Amino acid sequence: MPRGLAWMFIKVLLEKQYALPLRVVTRMYSYFCSFLEHTEALPVLWHQTLLSFAIHYSSSLEDIQQIGLKQLIKRQKHPLITPQILLALNGEYKEVERLKTQKSQVRHFEDNDMIVE
Description:
single chain; mainly alpha
């Protein structure tokens, strides 16, 4: 199976937010860390898959594993996705998304305001 297809499958599985057994989460952590010494730039899909993992399962990781993922994203960077991964690892991603949604709803309301005389 080509890697891109595997990453797509993993990403879809992660986004379903199943309650994965701890050993599966640990194995996913090990899988991502296997790219620590990878010298070539990884595709966007890999970064998106790591982001999905961080958003949905970082709370299941031990502190040392979270540190390991932070070291990984220092080496495997994507200008737009890496900051989001860091937010997710710090437990801030969902709060930022909630605030963005609220701001968007307020903006949408303001755009649709009608002056009633």
